[in-house]
Design brief:
This protein is of the alpha/beta class. The protein is 37% helix and 16% strand. The chain is built from ten helices and nine strands. The longest helix is centred in the N-terminal third of the chain and has 17 residues. InterPro entries: UPF0353/GerABKA_families (IPR050768), VWF_A (IPR002035), vWFA_dom_sf (IPR036465). This is VWA domain-containing protein. It holds the Pfam family VWA_2.
């Protein structure tokens, strides 16, 4: 009973194709009935003795079978369904926009070889842990620039990150607010949810109360003994987690766990469960019936 209650068609409009199929079948059947016009003027008992070849007529004609194929195809395309199944995209990891500070202070060698190099190493470890997830890149100093929108190709992200240096940035400064806002707009334009990962060693620019539409994680690229007060203030303004750099992968694993559990958009197509269509089960039957049209003389039967 539960199956009957849940049974429905995902695309019921395709069932309208059954109407012209039935009409064409009826018209063709009337046209091919050679005895129909004689029944008006000859007694039926006598007529059956006068007609020649009627006893050889098959009870199933090509037109009858064509109607059956048409009905089956219409039902299959309409998408019969009665049970749900998890979406293949339900477990997909949400995308992340990496916001990387590319300023002269990032060349400080206290995180050997430099803070910027350590940021690239941590980014490579993070992308490896989140294999298959889409990642984008924003670089900022005195101005913010979109380097790459979210892509599942981790190699491209790392190659572009390797090419970044303070010398190529057009302006010195700390446009941290503009960089976060740019990353937020990129994620909003993609419509797939996601998170922002802010990788910086300090924050000299002002940051008011956050109006960003996506969660933020702040990755502090500083030695353990250095003060992270400015970045802590940014984290409070953004209601973000502050992750400190470690010599092992504990920091990267913590960031990966947060990115995987946050930033999921409930409205993303393919999330959760969807109706499991059963129309494709009719495909072998349609193929089997179609084989009859390769039979010699079938169409002219």
């Amino acid at each position: 009973m539960s199956i009957l209650t849940a049974f429905h068609f995902e695309r019921p409009a395709w069932l309208l194709l059954l109407l012209p199929a039935a009409a064409l079948w009826y018209m063709e059947r009337r046209r091919s009935d050679e005895a129909r016009r004689w029944r008006r003027v000859i007694d039926p008992e006598l007529l059956r003795h006068l007609l020649v070849g009627q006893e050889r007529r098959s009870w199933l004609s090509p037109n009858d079978l064509l109607l059956a194929v048409w009905v089956l195809a219409g039902v299959a395309v309409a998408g019969p369904a009665w049970e749900r199944e998890p979406s293949p995209f339900a477990d997909a990891k949400p995308p992340v926009m990496v916001v990387l500070r590319v300023a002269p202070t990032m060349m400080t060698p206290d995180l050997a070889p430099t803070r910027l190099d350590r940021a690239r190493q941590k980014l490579a470890d993070l992308l490896k842990l989140r294999e298959g997830a889409s990642s984008g890149l924003v670089a900022y100093s005195g101005s913010s620039h979109l380097v790459l929108p979210p892509t599942p190709d981790a190699g491209v992200v790392l190659n572009l990150a390797q090419a970044l240096s303070p010398e190529i940035m057009p302006r010195e400064g700390d446009d941290i607010a503009g960089a976060a806002a740019l990353a937020d707009r990129v994620l909003a334009g993609g419509g797939h949810g996601g998170s922002i990962l802010l990788m910086a060693d300090t924050a000299t620019g002002g940051f008011g109360p956050s109006r960003l539409g996506h969660p933020v994680t702040v990755f502090a690229l500083l030695p353990p003994d250095q003060d992270r007060g400015r970045l802590a203030g940014v984290a409070r303004a953004l209601d973000a987690d502050l992750v400190a750099t470690t010599v092992d992968q504990v920091d990267v694993e913590a960031v990966a766990r947060r990115l995987d559990r946050t930033g999921r958009a409930a409205e993303v197509a393919g999330e959760g469960q969807h109706w499991k269509e059963a129309g494709y089960w009719l495909t072998p039957l349609l193929a089997l019936l179609a084989l009859l049209w390769f039979r010699r003389g079938w169409v002219t039967a």
